[in-house]
Amino acid sequence: MTPGTIVAIALGSGHPMHNYASMSASSLAENRRASAISQPKVALVPMTIGVGLGLGLGSFAGGALQSIYPYVAGTLATSSDHALWTLTYFLVHWALGIALMPWFSRKFGLKRLFILCVIMLASSSALAIIAKSLMLMLVARGAQGISAGIWCRHCCSVITRSICTPSPQRSGAT
Fold first, then answer.
1. What confidence tens digit (pLDDT) does each residue in 13-28 have?
2. Among 1, 26, 93, 117, which is least packed, fewest CB within 10 Å?
3. pTM more than 0.85
4. Sign of CA dihedral 71, 75, 77, 81
5. Interval 66-117: pLDDT, tens
6. Which one, of 48, 69, 52, lies nearest residue 60 by Cα?
7. Is residue 75 part of a domain?
8. Any domain includes 172
9. Where is the major localization of this protein (predicted)?
10. Is there a single domain that holds both residue 27 and residue 72?
11. Number of domains in the chain
12. Are 143 and 120 in contact (CB under 8 A)?
């Protein structure tokens, strides 16, 4: 609000709940912060849907092979027990990605980290599709796990920053 707007409101063009003429500068700033927090955040709806889809994709990447391990074992010419290693590799690397996310976030910024995770998840999924050996499949599943772990923690971080931080204090994605 500009000082002219405050004077216009105080002279009767009217805000029914506040008399801005008798308020100090600090209480005006508090009112602005309170109104920024209490305003409906309609712009958060598409962002929340997109972040939710990202979480779903990361979770889907982990469980996508669970029902077809016998087929994976047949394709890779290995036993079902060895095919199950792909899930173990994914989950161990997922945990590693969750632990590394803060460092990657500081190094690359939120926007570039998001793009990096999308590219890494897509390329490692393509590598898993064309894998002809168990070792190549394990490398691909490990890369999927790291990118999905970083991505899921990243999505939670974006939601937390967007909902819990008032608009004037929120920093843009870098």
1. 444 444 444 555 555 5
2. 26
3. no
4. negative
5. 777 788 888 888 888 888 888 889 999 999 999 999 999 999 988 899 889 8
6. 52
7. yes
8. no
9. membrane
10. no
11. 2
12. yes
